[in-house]
Design goal:
Helix 3 crosses helix 4 (89-100). Strand 2 (34-41), helix 2 (50-55) and strand 3 form a beta-alpha-beta unit. This protein has a 5-stranded mixed beta sheet. The chain has a 3-stranded mixed beta sheet with strand order 5-10-9. The protein has one domain: Spore Coat Polysaccharide Biosynthesis Protein SpsA, Chain A (Alpha-Beta Complex). The chain is globular, with a radius of gyration of 20 Å. The protein has 12 helices and 10 strands. The protein has 318 residues and is of the alpha/beta class.
Length: 318
């Protein structure tokens, strides 16, 4: 078969905006079947991508709070508050963005979700010789995900591997079917699939495992593995999630070239600090992120959050 083209979506938090141009550069270098790249982020971050938009005319910016009906950060925050959960809003929000993208006007037959802190270091084929999309097999098991999954779609873990990777190729039709199944689940309260996903989480589970409690990748992968067992094929990639400890996000292309001899993918989580003196740029960037977060809270006009920050500042001075 010839090339099979697809689009890429990248949910991007403020802390990852400066790293994203490099991510896009490496995507273009190695994921050569990718067409449009949709950066899904808060509209306040749009100005940080002006140069990137000039360099790549197939990059599109989408406002995370308006791209999907019934989904915004504030709504997720409220849903979680109703469950007396006051952290992890961004974690759940970005997962729902990946799922809900299938319902938007932008979604084609397939779209690849890609992490904003991750670089591809080799050419990766997301469809096999028969044209089947590929799951990447990983080793991970978090039982809380499967407690939620059981309540949500009535399935238990059935694959011998984990579907949680730094990326996933989604089929839009199957994803929409999954969301319909969740919507029709009358055993879980909620006005829509988003609220049901949160309500299915056992935040008050007596012997609960430490959160988070929901995985879009395990949910979608298990649904496919159960209902369409021959639809996907699988692949194994060499990945390194702690690459940030080498030189942080300011790692040079020469070192990345050396890493590519053994790795297909490397992730650079913002809080993985390299040793001195390579941590100096990180410390500067950390302060920058704090300023951006403070700006966003002030713009949002949340007295509770502002008061919380001021109290923390006073404690530190004492």
């Amino acid at each position: 078969m010839g090339k099979r083209l697809y689009d890429i979506i990248i949910p991007v938090a403020a802390k990852d905006c400066d790293f994203l141009p490099r991510v896009v550069f490496y995507i273009r270098k190695y994921l050569t079947e990718a067409e449009f790249i949709y950066i899904i982020t808060n509209e306040r971050n749009f100005s940080r991508f002006k140069k990137l938009l000039k360099l790549d005319n197939l990059v599109r910016l989408l406002d995370e709070n308006n791209v999907i009906n019934e989904l915004s950060y504030d709504q997720i925050k409220q849903y979680l508050a109703n469950k007396k959960v006051y952290e992890g809003q961004g974690w759940y929000f970005q997962q729902f963005l990946k799922m809900g993208f299938a319902q938007t006007e932008y979604a084609k037959e397939y779209y690849l979700s890609w992490d904003a802190d991750t670089l591809p270091l080799s050419h990766i084929q997301y469809f096999d010789d028969l044209g089947k999309p590929r799951f990447t097999m990983k080793r991970e098991f978090h039982s809380a995900y499967f407690h939620t999954l059981k309540r949500l779609i009535g399935l238990e873990k059935i694959a011998s591997f984990s579907f949680i990777a730094e990326h996933m190729m989604f089929n839009s039709a199957i994803m929409k079917e999954l969301l319909d199944v969740i919507n029709l689940n009358k055993d879980v309260e909620g006005e829509n699939w988003i609220e049901k996903c949160i309500n299915a989480c056992e935040f008050d589970f007596e012997h609960r495992e430490k959160g988070p409690y929901f995985s879009e990748f395990e949910t979608y992968g298990t649904f496919v593995w159960s209902n369409y067992p021959n639809f996907y094929s699988v692949q194994i990639l060499n990945t390194f999630r702690a690459a940030g400890f080498i030189r942080g996000r300011y790692i040079n292309d020469h070192i990345l070239s050396r890493l590519s001899l053994d790795l297909d993918i490397a992730s650079f989580e913002i809080y993985d600090q390299p040793v001195f003196p390579y941590n100096i740029p990180f410390l500067w960037y950390k302060q920058k992120i704090r300023i951006i977060k403070l700006r966003d809270i002030l713009l949002a006009g949340s007295p509770h959050e502002i008061l919380k920050i001021l109290k923390n500042k006073i404690k530190k001075r004492k």
